[in-house]
C-alpha cells in the first residue's frame, strides 16, 4: 500500500513553517547581540557566548523534536505538537527581554566573572526560544517524508533543507538590515513573538480541522491569531520592554547622559552600548572633559600645529575634539570617519555639533576612508578613537594600516591612538607599540600623571617622524591636569621582555592580548 500523496496545501504549510521558524530563530540570534550590548558590550566574547547558547538550544531542540516525531506522531498529532512548540517559542521570545533585564543586575553583581555574566545573560534570555523552535523542524520533516510518494523522499528532504537555509539567511539579513534599525531590538523580539504565535494559531486550526471540527478549528485559529497579535502589542507598553537606549541604530545602543551637575554648566556624555564616546559642553566647545582628548589637544599644541591644521579622525562619537578644533581653527580642514550615520545625527541633535566649513563627516569605515585618499603629506594629525567593547578594532592595529597612515602624514605630523589597557600588564599596548616602531622612527607612550583607580588605564600612543619637544605636559586651558611620557628605554625593555607579536592583517590577536583585562570586572568596567 503506497503512502497517500500530500496535498499542495500541506506541502505549502510544511515549507512555510520550516522557512519562518528558521528565519525567526536567526532573527532572535542576531538581536541577542544588540540586547546584550548595553550590559556587557559587543565583543568577540559576547558573540561567542550567543552563538554557543543559540546553537546549543537548536541542537537540544532537534533531539527533542526527533523524540516528539516518533511513531505515534501522525499529521493531526504533529500539528498539535507544532502548535504547542510554536506557542512556547512565542512565549519564550516574549519573555526574553524581561528575563535579560531581570538577570542583568544579578549577574552584574560583585564577584561575578565577566565571562560568567556574558554566558549567564545569554542563557537566561536566549536558550529557551532556541530550544523550542529547534524542535519544530524534525516534526515537520517527519510528516512530509511519511507522506512523500515513493521515490520522492530525497527531493522532499532537499526542499525542506533548502527552505530552512533560505529562512536562516533571510532572518539574518532582515534582522541586521531592517528590523533593529527600524523598530529596535525589543520591538523586533515582540514582532518575532507575534509571528511565532500566528504560526502556532495556524497549526492549532489545522489540528482541529483534521479532527473533523472545522468550525471549531477556525474559531480556535482565529482566537489564537488574535492573541498572538494583541499580547506582544500590549507587552510593548510594559516597563520591562522599554528600551535602555535613547536611539538604537544598526551598530549601537546610543544613550545621552546629562553631565550638567558634574561639569557645572550644560554638558552631555554620549554612551555607545556601555562605553563613553565623548562629552561635550554646550557653551564652550574647547572645554574637554575627558582627559585623553584633553591630552591630544595639548600634545598637538605643544608639538606645534600650523595655522591651518588638517586632521583625520577615525570614529566620531560625540565629535568632541573635531568640534573643539573647528571652533579653534575655523580655517582648518578636519575629516571625521564615522561609520554609523545615527551617531553623527545624534551628535548634531543632542551634542551641539554645528555645521562648519572646516568639518567634513564621512559615513564610512575609517581605514577604508583614509586609504581611499591619495598618498601624500595631507594631515598633521590622524587620530584613532574607535573601539569595539574596550578593544581597538583589529584592522586599526596592524602594520599594513600603519603604513597607510604614514603615507598620508605631513612631515612632523603624528598618528595618535587611544588605548585602554591594564595598568600592570598592558600586552596589547606593547604589541601595538612594537608594531608602530617598525614604520615610525618615534613611538611615544603618554599617560595622565594622576593615579588612575582600578586596573584600567587610558594610554595615548603617538607615532611620528619627530619626537615631542617635552616629556611632561601641563594643561594650558581647561581642567588642571598633567601628563607624562613614559621613558623610551623603559617602554623598549617592557616590549622586549613581553614577547608580544607584531600585529599584521594576517595575525592580530587583539582579543587574546587584552583578555586579561576584558575578562576582569575591574578592568572591563562592567
Describe what is shown at a glance.
The protein is 55% helix and 15% strand.
Topology:
Elements lengths: L7 H33 L3 H25 L6 H33 L6 H21 L1 H11 L6 H58 L3 H22 L11 E2 L4 E6 L1 H4 L3 E6 L2 E7 L9 H13 L6 E5 L5 H9 L4 E5 L3 H10 L8 E4 L3 H6 L7 E6 L14 H8 L2 E14 L4 H11 L4 E7 L7 E9 L7 E3 L7 E4 L2 H11 L11 H9 L2 H4 L2
Helix pairs in contact: 1-2, 1-3, 1-4, 1-5, 1-6, 2-4, 2-5, 3-4, 3-5, 3-6, 5-6, 6-7, 14-15
Question: Could you explain the architecture of this structure?
Answer:
With 526 residues, the protein is of the alpha/beta class. It folds into 2 domains: 8-244, Growth Hormone, Chain: A; 288-524, Vaccinia Virus protein VP39 (Rossmann fold). Helix content is 55%, strand content 15%. It has 17 helices and 13 strands. It has helices spanning 8-40, 44-68, 75-107, 114-134, 136-146, 153-210, 214-235, 260-263, 291-303, 320-328, 341-350, 366-371, 399-406, 427-437, 488-498, 510-518, 521-524; strands at residues 247-248, 253-258, 267-272, 275-281, 310-314, 333-337, 359-362, 379-384, 409-422, 442-448, 456-464, 472-474, 482-485. The strands form 2 sheets. A 9-stranded mixed β-sheet has the order 7-6-5-8-9-11-10-13-12, with helices on both faces. Strand 1 (247-248) and strand 2 form a beta hairpin. The longest helix has 58 residues, at 153-210. The radius of gyration is 28 Å and the shape is elongated. The termini are far apart.
